[in-house]
User: What shape does this take?
Amino acid sequence: MRAVIFDLDGVVVDTAKYHYLAWRKLAAELGFVFDEANNERLKGVSRMTSLEIVLETGKIQNLSMEEKIALADRKNGYYLDMVSTIDESEILPGIPAFLERLRAEGYKIALGSASKSGGMILKKLGLMPFFDAVVDGNLVERAKPDPQVFTKAAEMLGVPCKDCVVIEDSAAGIAAAAAGGMKSVGIGSSEILGNADIVVPDTAELPGLDLPK
Ligand code: G6P
Ligand code: MG
Assistant: This one.
């Protein structure tokens, strides 16, 4: 039995752009510009780690834990507003066909997302019936590049890690897959995702792709 474990943001759906816009809005309110080059470092990492990176780029120091939690909550509020109307039209190209193919070929399918909104988004997209296991930020303590989100998914599926392929758009996620002893397919640029077993420029390639063994 083999399995495919999907990251969510930037792989199944284009929510990566909403995370970015929400952080950018928070940064603007704090008086600095948060640009796309810096945003690459936020992909795949937890909300609080993202906040630390955003504050570092704005050279904001010495905040209390309460202040940091309030800022992270504020960003999450903006994000939740932005995704409140999300629907299947925002599923990325090739994903439905790829899910159908995996199901027809007998693969187990799981979600492995750092986002605490991961399960909720999957439901809104109507994709829940494809997934045999859903692991999101509510079920893990350690964020990518720690492999916990993927190893937990493998455990829930009952598939050995070496028989799992992770689909990821972030460097942290590709590192997490390798740390968990899993194969990986990177979605995006090979400059950023060079450690993946295979890199494709976008999700439209997935339905016809030979998965790494
Ligand atoms: C994913 C995204 C990150 C996001 C993180 C936490 O890994 O790639 O950009 O910050 O999840 O998401 P959350 O919805 O819990 O704030
Ligand atoms: Mg992602």
Observations:
- The domain at 16-84 is CATH 1.10.150.240 (DNA polymerase; domain 1).
- The CA atoms of residues 18 and 72 lie 14 Å apart.
- The two ends are 12 Å apart (CA to CA).
